[in-house]
Design brief:
373 residues; Ubiquitin-like (UB roll); alpha/beta
């Protein structure tokens, strides 16, 4: 990708992978047969949808730099990965500058501010008529706002927490414009997000990383080198090294020329040994598992062999919100399984579990239904 503003005109939609220890290892099985994602050295890589949106510039909420188009994409996301140049070598407009001359905190603030202003503008358009309707029908503020903000991927818990932290009245007609602005800003701040402190191996990046951690203690800040990850994956694809994405080291598998050796030595010394990883997989894991609270559940047809109806071992690893009941999980597989739900079997223990039992991380589950799919 070119390092200049607005090269990314349309969002790039792709697939990324979170990493989790595969259940086949704990179960003492020699392998698994993933139908989605892949398994490598006992690590299960589970696909997630990733939408790459161009960086926002000041006044993006007013349409500058295709800002409203980008913000419309951002609102749909379950979690945000805010990729920041920790070295301060890219300014607010996306132009290259000498390392350390741009404050990376400004990039995070631009996103929070522009997203808040854009969202406020959308909500305020029909605010008066909305408040009148809510007051007339006697609907609680949190319930009304849940409905009003559903198109922005805002969760009910974020609404109630924002109202509580700001001490806002339960009746919307008592809110003034400043109350609404503060509420929107707080909701934006509460949305699941991870700050990706990229270019961590460049000069001045460590100082930028520390600034970000100090300024935003409420968010995970992950030291990252996307360039190092790309180098390692290309070297692995070429058969030069063995590298499991997310690992803290790699193994050389073929003779290297001087240039290759120099590049890989620099990655090992400046990124892997210093920071423990390239940070790419860790940032994704943080967003999915820590911020969104997802767990991994393996549905199977045969609870003894841990296989599906075609004999494949642990073919699916599903990402499921923590707190999901087994009946809800059944509906994620097929609606008929949920309609005819009788019980579930925990394949690890053989226990029978009821509809209201909640999924646990790493569970291997057989759903028994009168409407077997």
């Amino acid at each position: 990708m070119e390092n200049r503003p607005f090269v990314t005109i349309d969002p790039n939609v792709g697939v990324a992978y979170v990493r989790k220890r595969c259940a086949h290892v704990d179960l003492g099985l020699p392998k698994c047969d993933p139908v989605d994602g892949f398994c490598m050295k006992g690590w299960r890589f589970i696909p997630v949808k990733l939408v790459d949106v161009a960086g926002l510039v000041p006044e993006a909420s007013k349409g500058r730099g295709l800002g409203t188009k980008f913000l419309d994409e951002v609102r749909k996301a379950d979690a945000l990965l805010i990729v920041v140049d920790a070295s301060g070598s890219t300014d607010a407009e996306g132009n290259p500058v000498p390392p350390g001359t741009h404050d990376p905190r400004e990039d995070v603030e631009i996103l929070l501010r522009e997203m808040s202003e854009w969202m406020f503008n959308q909500v305020y358009k029909d605010w008066k008529s909305f408040v009148t309707k809510v007051s007339t029908l006697g609907i609680r503020a949190d319930e009304a706002l849940k409905e009003r903000l559903s198109g922005f991927s805002v969760k009910h818990r974020e609404i109630t927490k924002a109202m509580e932290e700001l001490g806002l009245p339960e009746q919307l007609h008592k809110w003034n414009v400043d109350d609404l602005k503060k509420f929107i800003r707080k909701v934006v701040e509460l949305r699941p997000k991870v700050i990706v402190a990229n270019k961590i191996d460049l000069p001045k990046a460590e100082e930028g990383y520390e600034l970000l951690k100090e300024a935003y203690p409420q968010y995970p800040v992950i030291p990252t080198s996307a360039a190092a990850e790309l180098i390692l994956r290309k070297a692995a694809k070429a058969g030069l090294i063995e590298y499991v994405p997310g690992d803290s080291d790699f193994e050389i598998k073929a003779p290297l020329n001087e240039k290759q050796k120099k590049v890989l030595d620099a990655v090992r010394k400046n990124v892997l040994e210093k920071w423990g990883s390239t940070g790419v997989v860790q940032a994704l894991n943080s967003a999915v598992f820590d911020q969104l609270g997802m767990v991994v559940v393996y549905p199977v047809h045969d609870a003894h062999k841990f296989t599906d109806s075609e004999g494949r071992v642990l073919p699916e690893a599903k990402l499921v919100p923590k707190g999901t009941t087994l009946k809800e999980f059944a509906s994620m597989i097929h609606s008929d399984l949920a309609k005819g739900f009788l019980y579930a079997i925990d394949a690890r223990t053989g226990r029978r579990l009821g509809a209201d039992s909640e999924v646990e991380d790493g569970m291997v589950i057989k759903i028994v239904s009168s409407l077997a799919h």
